[in-house]
Amino acid sequence: MQLLETRGVGKIFGRVTALEQMDLVLNQGEVLGLVGQNGSGKSTLLKIIGGLVQPSSGEMLLHGKPVRLRSQSDATMHGIGMVHQEQSLVPNLTVAENIFLDKPNPAKAQGLYRWKQLYEAAAAQLRKIEVDIDPRAIVEDLRFAQRQQVELAKVLAVEDLVSHPPIILFDEPTSVLTPEEIRLLFRQIDRLRQSAAIVFVSHRLDEILHISDRAVVMTDGRKVADEPVSALNRESLYRLMVGRQRAIRAPRGIQSDEADPSKARLQVSGLSAGQQVRPATLSVAPGEILGLLGVQSSGAEEFCRALFGAEDNVQGKIKLNGAQISVPSPAAAVQAGIGYLPANRHVEGMLKGRTLVENMALTFGLDYGHRGILVNRRAERQVATEWIGRLKVKTRSADARIDDLSGGNQQKVVLGKWLLSRRLQLLLLDHPTRGLDPGARDDLFAVIRAEAAKGLSVIFIADTIGEVLDLSDRVIVMRDGTMSAEYNLNRGDAPSEEDLVRAMV
Amino acid sequence: MSHVQPATDPLVPAKPGFAERRAALRRGVPLAVLILLVGVSAIIAPGTLSPAALNGFISDAAPLMILVIGSTIPILTGSIDLSVAGIASITGVMLVVLAPIFGPWTCLVVVLLALLFGALQGWLHAWLQIPSFITTLGTLSMLSGLSLLLSNATAQPLPDSDPFINLLGDTSFDIPNTGFATLVLVAVLALVMRYTRIGRDLFALGAGERAALMSGVRNVRLRSFAFAISAGCAALAGLALVSVTQFSSPTLAGNLLLLSIVGVVLGGTAISGGVGGLWAGVIGGLITAWLRVATVLIGVKPTGQYIVFGVMALIAVFLTTDRTKIGIIK
């Protein structure tokens, strides 16, 4: 049964056409997988259906009747719910308050809360998705995966607002989840499948093929394919999306030189950070790509942040090219030639409101100045523009504001900030592919491989096991703040996914 | 299936987009306001543009301009320095107190002390992570108290042989030297802001503090620098003030605090940091100084001036806040 239809929907931001002539039908009992490269208009389409953005042209029909959604809460009242990529809960309120934040609820009377009824109603919503979370708990006290479940309960509560089947939109929900949490999410989607229309966005083609009934591929704001998943496989989906064949990894010849530690690029001994990272010892060779793997709070992220001096209570010794870094701090790390691409690029990676060149020249622009004192803007601009080209950043101009780019392109700019350095020794990548489409990810990997071949050492925390095996020379698995397994891929170690998962959990 | 962008040239010829036009507007409006203000005043009272009146304006405006330019620097980083009026006031008092010890070098010593004090204040604010608002409110109170204490709450004549004060109080080519001092200060700071790493890092801190820290910007050093500059400028402003009056008064600059901040925001520097700059400070300082003239011209009593300035401050903040930065989706 057809629930929602968009007819010729388009959206123009300033001079940029984000979405053009989009015709889309959402049916009850069907999971629609939506894929496309960064900046292809997926998010815009989802925001239009979710009431967050008003279309510039075209119309939407809900049950055959034209409808205008003026806001997200308006969409909620029409039974349309959206699970955001980054969680949208208010951290200092209770679970129950969050679930009913955007909708009328039984517990408000004459503007006063009736807490008991509110908690009961929330408990009913949580029971519906079979999770055991106390509705009285404060959201910030919950674990990440639990918060995701609350978010899901909040969105699914729209079922009760309308008499018809709800429409649930998932905007890259899996990008921040562990494999176990993804399985839980998929179980919920399977449970909803019959009683709702679902749109599922992911950059992981396997997930799309696994969970969806129908796949829609978008490129440059247009729909280029709309086919049942049974007619597709990984390769054909990739081709539809990227427009070229997938690159196959060529093995590289870098050996990690444990026998001769004097030649190591990085030597870490007894590095710890509070309870999150237990004393760890490690060395990385010049040009080596080391993959770190671990579930959320395994200590992999914290290990990288400790190396960069961005964690509290860092103990232990960090030596780069044999010279010790005295007081760990980001400024000292940068001085020594360590770069860090943060997982949270919005807060820690990019300067909002500034141009691409300004963002990229921030840290190492002076490498291109006079005697390390005076800034040479022309030289900076030139090298930044070169990197914008090499990283294939999709932008109108090097002087565009970084906010105007799509997420994946912003990530490339933040990476460019480090790569344009002439003296970068070690690059730490914390979930570098988060929010990147497969094509952009391959571009990114190619650039990282090329830089590693020139001698840059890389430590990288992957989103998936596949990525780690794809890019790394050596893999270290972390669990509970310690290193639980190590595989040297170039020496013939070939761990299976099962081996790695066993070491992770 | 189309290849989205050729790999070699991803740059489409640049045309100014919406955001750039907005930014240009924000830069252009204060200048237009200044010209309009001067134009209207000249029509109401043509005498305001006579050489004598302009010279009066320059001596009157120079201390305020210097204060505004100094205050701009911490505000660019997202902090604020409220102690500038206190420093400007205590400068005159220190001149009187220290003259017997340092003789002709007193002015230099006073400015150096101010720079040190500012650096310490910036260090306290950044290292101990005390909000600048409260740090400098505290030091403002301390400085005001100290001025009253050191001067016994009375106005005292300056030692008449101080070479630097005499130079500042003099004129060259019939134009007050304080005007030239302001120009030199602006030129030096403009060079630092444009051609050293400091300028860029100041803006970066204001635009996104955590991203700047994670990019290796040295927060504590930079904030110490920013507050040292604002304190140093405040001391210069104090010297410019006493060079006109030839008297030191412990409450000399008390009424300049609001005006200096009004000046910063009227020029288009956002109080949230990261947007604006020295040029904005210059224009904002000129507008504020001219407003003082204009309010008298249109017959606002001196007692009523503060109402005008308060209203101007609100309007200026309203116009200069970069709302896209907050990221609310309408």
From TrEMBL, chain A:
Record domain ABC transporter: where: 4-245, 254-505
Keywords, in A-Z order: ATP-binding, Cell membrane, Membrane, Nucleotide-binding, Repeat, Sugar transport, Translocase, Transport
GO MF terms held by the record: ATP binding; ATP hydrolysis activity
SUPFAM superfamilies cross-referenced by the UniProt entry: P-loop containing nucleoside triphosphate hydrolases (SSF52540)
Residue ranges of the TM segments: none
Database matches in Pfam families: ABC_tran (PF00005)
SMART domains: AAA
Keyword hit for DNA damage: no
Name assigned to this protein: Sugar ABC transporter ATP-binding protein
TrEMBL record, chain B:
Protein name: ABC transporter permease
UniProt KW keywords: Cell membrane, Membrane, Transmembrane, Transmembrane helix
Protein's UniProt keywords contain GTP-binding: no
Pfam families associated with the record: BPD_transp_2
InterPro entries reported for this sequence: ABC_transp_permease
Cell location: Cell membrane
GO molecular function: transmembrane transporter activity
Organism, as annotated: Acidisoma cellulosilyticum
